Amino acid sequence: MTTKEEWIAKDLKYVWHPDTQMKQYEGADFKPTLIERGEGIYLYDIDGNKYIDGVSSWWVNTLGHSNPKLNNILTQQAQKIEHVLLADFTHIPAIELAEKLVNLAGSPFSKVFYSDDGSTAVEVALKMAYQYWYQKGKPEKKYFVSMTDSYHGDTLGSVSVGGIDIYKKIFNPLVFETLKVCAPYCYRCPKNKECGKCNIECIDEVEALFKSRSSEIAAMIVEPLVQGAAGMRMYPPLYLSKLRALCDEYDILLIDDEVAMAFGRTGKYFAFEHANIKPDIFCVAKGITAGYIPLAATITTDKIYNAFYDDFSTLKTFYHGHSFTGNPVACAVAVENLKIMEEEKIIDSLQPKIEKLKQCLKKFKELQHVGDVRQTGMIGAVEMVRNKSTKEPYDFVERIGHKVFKEALKNGALLRPIGNVIYFMPPLIIKEEEIEKLTKIAYNAIKTVTEMN
């Protein structure tokens, strides 16, 4: 029988982990945790230790691990048809899911284009937006605007519109040119305004850019309300409202990257609902299948779709596809996921949990090395700093966040930080007492680590 140590040794020999410097495991006591199973909000390792999945296993797991209803539908669909090409063929799960997504998003959304993950959903949106303008007789509208410190995926197109150096700098010779505007960051306001007492002056830079270059701009892409990989940086819905108005004024498409935020994370199905706006195109993935199987969708309107609708002689077809586009098993799981959310009133049940998270986050403000505490819906973030009054950050090489991660893991919580930001994005089914337990573990871990450094 293979032992845990032997499995880990094989892992380090054969598996190249994402976003991980593998040398950290060389000669160290700390090794990858070997997870054997999951149930509800908990993960269990091969030794039987259990951990609250405080980050929903990279933000995908919304209904908890090993949900019986999802397990059942996955098995049923696999016994019918596991995959079929979606060109000239179709299947009921893809049709059902598209209808549900369109109905959830509401008018004017009408069309769903499937792909495999968040990055590819963004690639689809970018290509779709450019080809739209090309076919409208405006090929000069070829530039995309995005925010500084944005993240939209790891494929080259999505990296192009991203703004985080650690993901982009080395690939600069390979990516296409984009335009950047300063992102709203309330804790470290680029306009030196006080959080909650401003007029969203950070939008002025967008307006100036649109005014000078609108004839060249195809679209602006945003992460709605929360810039995830930047460290869960949050901004008010009014920014989105103003951005929608500017896009309308200057005839620029608005692409909403809802990959991380959709399906309840902000307290609503889609983050754009908080601003009472509708983008021209939006992207979903992650929580669409509750973390079961990779699936993504790019959702748009007849306005966009009709620019591609013609006979073959015009070559207006959107020639983009993936082998696993609209996979039947993934679509069936996604349909069941949305059915569960509706029948069990998951979104309606979130408000007491959101309030509980808010109350639990308050205590972090008293810690000496916590500079900012922020929350949007079921997402909470704690930004650690070396100096509270000056907001001086810890150096990256100190890996303070990683030390907190290891401390929390020892006490039963999975919290994989973003730099020096510890964040909470648990499965939506978490109970109020479990929120309290999760945040208590994090509080003690931050206190222990920062007092030692």
Walkthrough of the structure:
The chain has helices at residues 4-14, 56-59, 68-80, 92-105, 118-135, 156-161, 165-168, 204-213, 237-250, 302-305, 328-343, 350-362, 400-410, 432-452, and strands at 35-39, 42-45, 50-53, 109-115, 143-147, 179-181, 217-222, 226-227, 233-234, 253-257, 281-284, 296-301, 370-376, 379-384, 413-414, 421-424. With 453 residues, it is α/β, with parallel strands linked by helices. The strands form four sheets. It has a seven-stranded mixed β-sheet, with helices on both faces. It has a four-stranded mixed β-sheet with strand order 1-2-3-15. The protein is built from 14 helices and 16 strands.
Give the terminus-to-terminus CA distance: 42 Å
Q: Please summarize the sheet with the most strands.
A: 7 strands, mixed
The Rg value, from CA coordinates, equals 22 Å
Oligomer: single chain
Given helix and strand content, the structural type is alpha/beta
Tally the helices. Answer: 14
Series of H and E elements: HEEEHHHEHEHHEHEEEHEEEHHHEEHEEH
Strand content: 15-25%
Can you give the mean pLDDT? Answer: 96
Would you count the extended β strands for me?
Answer: 16
Q: Runs with pLDDT <50, length 5+?
A: none
User: How does the overall form come out from the CA principal axes?
Assistant: globular
Helix content, binned percent: 25-40%
Strand order of the largest sheet: 4-12-11-10-7-5-6
Summarize the structure.
This protein is an alpha/beta fold. Helices cover 35% and strands 16% of the residues. The chain has helices spanning 4-14, 56-59, 68-80, 92-105, 118-135, 156-161, 165-168, 204-213, 237-250, 302-305, 328-343, 350-362, 400-410, 432-452; strands spanning 35-39, 42-45, 50-53, 109-115, 143-147, 179-181, 217-222, 226-227, 233-234, 253-257, 281-284, 296-301, 370-376, 379-384, 413-414, 421-424.
